[in-house]
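Let's practice the habit of predicting before peeking. Look at the sequence and jot down your guess about where helices and strands might fall. Then scroll down.
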Amino acid sequence: MRRKIRYYFDPLSLTYQIIPVRFRDRLKRILYILATGLVFSAVVIALAFKFLSSPKERILQREIEQYKVQVQAMNYELDQMQKILTDLQNRDDNIYRVIFETEPVPASIRQAGIGGANRYQNFEGSDNFALLLETAKKLDRVKSQIYVQSKSFDEVFEMAKKKEAMVTAIPAIQPVSKRDLKYISSYFGYRIHPFYKTVMFHEGIDFTAPKGAKVYATGDGVVKEASLINLDGFGKKIIIEHGFGYQTIYAHLNSFNVKPGQKVKRGDIIATVGTSGLSTGPHLHYEVIYNHQKVNPAYFMFDLDPATFQEIIRQSSDYKESSNIPVGE
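Done guessing? Here is the structure:
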């Protein structure tokens, strides 16, 4: 670019004269151009850093997104673990501790918090603070509850060792095998009686199975009664005295192969399914008695899967004429 030449009019010579450029003015001009260029460059660089990412930054961003997905997956797994842990806690309080006649673990201990006001301060300022905080709290809560539950199981295990005889005597299995069992036709609780058509309390569980299917003793004990005829509508029935306040009743039998005074072990074949007494079809009526009180047999069938156990408890809460659900394998 050609340098601009400035002129001025000389009134004495009546001509235009060239204005000489001083070094100081030239230096000012150069410095001005340099300063303008530096400012422009700084602005361009700042915008580039703000809106454009380097390859390394893009890699880091992808890794952050992957970690975020992994944390979300961990959150889901923790939720599933919490469900399993809750089921274990319910069984512990409502079954195992009831069996051993000990108090359930207080909720204040099971749900005890984690100390430390600044426990999660390392997550503060993070872009994913809420997600990380939620996951960390869930993890701490599950860890705390697992510790409490493990200690509770240790206590139950010690009681079990001290009461080995009691453990083998307590009714603890289904009286009909899963292979033979078609469905549960009546639950513990109020129902419409199939013969009298009135609402009556059903004091056991009815297992529908083929006639002649094997019936098993659900705990160690002594046969108290093995009768062919009775007036309670049960037809052929067996009563086993297990000790420790427990008895079991097996009714509507086709046949039985035990006699009063005979000792039996859990899992022994004691009879076959039939239709004797007031019965609409082949099934086994099964009762559990504890300290002269009829109790829900579902609480004494430890070989049930959690889903079937919950369904039996739910069905027992309402009366019904019949409700056929298959028992899980």
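How did you do? The first helix runs from residue 23 to 51.
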